[in-house]
């Protein structure tokens, strides 16, 4: 019996961590055994001591768990990589260590002046997870405002807090009753609130408040560490970017220096625009297109398309106005200028973005290109003067010292013993300012020299001596190309072909007469040879042209009534007259040629007699009519017909 009621049983209960109710067992057994009262008192005292020891051990175990949780939290902070993960771990530990249904954290929003939900654990309500608490509102708003912890065993019934409909609805949807909130402090500043909450009423002991405060301190450290880490990373990123910028700038400066040295060497050794384009693309990469003032390609490196003329003009004007390269889409434009004169443009499509130093390289390349073009233009002008003087001497009368002329031509690469045609361009091409005249002369010199010929400006006109035998084709080609350059039609007459210095002067006179005839016939803006105009061209060219007015008056006086009659009535009197004269005055052959009856021809000629008078078939009068018909046809004839 004594063994059953021995105090040692309480030690055994403590050893196996028995529940408090089991400590009543030895007393119940002692009473059942009928032990005296003094033994029962002794056992009661032993039970009380054992329960005290058990409570002490339980508190120590709980403290050990709390310290372990705090240690784990500190370890997480030491190896902080993801602040969100650390905050979630703190909230989870708060819920576990305090044994609550829910734990959560809110942070202060300085811009809006309230707090917002940052992390939750155990929450099931989306409305609760999206709550924002104004300062002073609800338990959390009061903690954030005062910086002091607050606890309530029954929040919905607690009148100490300022309840709002939104907060109460969120708390109610989550089903929270007991809530403990402690501040997250950084120095004297409250940055948020850490909560532990239960869905049933329960008090919170001072130890629990202290534990949550410790976790809140860790959370504040985690938040501040994350902020400092983010700032450090941002600073490192800025330093890295600055270092990259410095390195890129240093590299671009080195590229610019290398490009400057290379382009200087190009100028000194007499390089061309093609060499400049190659140098730029080797330094900057990409593709480059060099254009002259007319938009013609001077050099091309890589695959790059020419822009529309309007877009090109706008970009070049912008580059000239700003005094630097400009970007339009994927292309960079640099105007090539010399003073106020536009010489062209450089178009660059780079592989990578250009920095300022790279733009300077492109702009320096445009400057070097301008120098090369000016030098080339100076050389061309000097050569043009030499070529022009030779052509002047060749077409002058009388031609002197043929052997000397041949020697001069041979040095210029011109073979005077090959067939040549002479093309005279009308003064309509030279109309305008001195720059326009210079432009036409320069074009003619280049055009002729590239074909092994000569060109010169004479008496307000331009004369070209071109290799070949087809004078009419040469005149029309000159008209076409020069009209494109000027943007307006020009007129050109051609003579020849001629072989040898002695015959060139005659071909030049023939070209001048053809040009005069074209103007007299009203065919300005066309090109033709004297052979294509026939005897009318010789006739008109042999006399001083009084202008188109004289020809028009002659036509009106001679066949004007017939032409007007055809125009009004839609008849074919002019065609009938041409057929009649063309077959030597035979009515039958004229009818056959016109595919009509002889009587029809007779009736038409009778009408002609009524319009021109009865003497129109007399020899002198008939010659005038035939000449007028030929002039009428030539005035309306197109090149090549």
UniProtKB/TrEMBL annotation:
SMART domains, alphabetized: GAF
**Highest taxon, organism lineage:** Bacteria
Q: Which residues form a coiled coil?
A: none
Question: What Gene3D superfamilies does the record tag this protein with?
Answer: 3.30.450.40, PucR C-terminal helix-turn-helix domain
**Domain GAF: from-to ranges:** 82-233
Family affiliation: Belongs to the CdaR family.
Q: What is this protein called?
A: Helix-turn-helix domain-containing protein
């Amino acid at each position: 019996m004594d063994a059953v009621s021995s105090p040692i049983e309480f030690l055994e209960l403590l050893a196996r961590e028995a529940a408090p109710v089991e400590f009543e067992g030895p007393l119940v057994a002692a009473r059942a055994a009928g032990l005296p009262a003094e033994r029962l008192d002794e056992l009661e005292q032993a039970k009380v001591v054992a329960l005290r020891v058990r409570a002490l051990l339980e508190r120590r175990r709980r403290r050990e768990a709390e310290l372990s949780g705090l240690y784990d939290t500190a370890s997480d902070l030491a190896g902080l990589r993801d602040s969100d993960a650390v905050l979630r771990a703190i909230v989870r530990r708060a819920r576990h260590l305090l044994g609550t249904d829910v734990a959560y954290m809110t942070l202060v929003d300085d811009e809006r002046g309230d707090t917002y939900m940052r992390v939750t654990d155990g929450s099931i309500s989306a409305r609760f997870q999206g709550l924002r608490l104004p300062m002073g509102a609800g338990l959390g708003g009061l903690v954030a405002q005062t910086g002091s912890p607050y606890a309530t065993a029954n929040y919905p019934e607690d009148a100490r807090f300022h309840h709002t409909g939104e907060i109460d609805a969120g708390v109610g949807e989550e089903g929270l009753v007991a809530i403990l909130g402690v501040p997250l402090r950084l120095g004297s500043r409250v940055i948020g609130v850490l909560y532990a909450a239960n869905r049933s009423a329960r008090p919170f002991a001072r130890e629990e408040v202290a534990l949550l405060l410790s976790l809140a301190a860790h959370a504040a450290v985690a938040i501040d560490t994350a902020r400092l880490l983010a700032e450090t990373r941002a600073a490192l990123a800025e330093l890295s970017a600055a270092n990259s910028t410095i390195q890129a700038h240093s590299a671009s400066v080195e590229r610019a220096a290398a490009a400057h040295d290379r382009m200087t060497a190009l100028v000194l050794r007499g390089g061309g625009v093609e060499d400049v384009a190659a140098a730029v693309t080797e330094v900057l990469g990409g593709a480059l297109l060099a254009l002259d003032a007319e938009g013609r390609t001077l050099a091309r490196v890589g695959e790059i398309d020419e822009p529309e003329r309007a877009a090109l003009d706008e970009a070049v004007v912008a580059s000239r106005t700003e005094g630097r390269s400009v970007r339009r889409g994927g292309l960079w434009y640099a105007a090539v200028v010399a003073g106020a004169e536009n010489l062209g443009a450089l178009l660059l499509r780079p592989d990578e973005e250009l920095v300022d130093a790279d733009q300077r390289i492109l702009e320096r390349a445009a400057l070097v290109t301008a120098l090369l073009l000016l030098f080339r233009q100076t050389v061309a002008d000097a050569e043009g003067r030499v070529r022009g003087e030779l052509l002047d001497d060749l077409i002058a009368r009388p031609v002197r010292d043929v052997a000397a002329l041949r020697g001069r031509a041979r040095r210029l690469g011109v073979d005077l013993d090959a067939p040549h045609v002479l093309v005279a361009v009308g003064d309509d091409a030279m109309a305008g300012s001195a720059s326009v005249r210079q432009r036409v002369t320069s074009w003619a010199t280049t055009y002729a020299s590239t074909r092994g010929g000569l060109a010169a400006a004479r008496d307000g006109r331009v004369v070209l001596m071109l290799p070949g035998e087809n004078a009419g084709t040469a005149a029309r080609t000159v008209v076409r190309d020069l009209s494109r350059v000027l943007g307006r039609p020009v007129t050109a007459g051609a003579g020849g072909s001629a072989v040898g210095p002695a015959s060139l002067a005659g071909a030049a006179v023939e070209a001048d007469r053809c040009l005069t005839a074209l103007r007299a016939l009203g065919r300005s803006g066309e090109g033709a040879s004297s052979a294509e105009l026939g005897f009318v061209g010789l006739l008109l060219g042999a006399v001083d042209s009084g202008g188109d007015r004289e020809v028009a008056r002659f036509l009106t006086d001679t066949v004007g009534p017939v032409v007007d009659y055809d125009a009004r009535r839609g008849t074919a009197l002019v065609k009938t007259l041409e057929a009649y004269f063309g077959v030597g005055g035979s009515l039958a052959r004229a009818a056959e040629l016109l595919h009509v009856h002889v009587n029809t021809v007779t009736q038409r000629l009778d009408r002609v007699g009524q319009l021109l008078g009865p003497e129109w078939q007399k020899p002198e009068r008939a010659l005038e009519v035939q000449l007028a018909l030929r002039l009428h046809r030539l005035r309306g004839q197109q090149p090549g017909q």
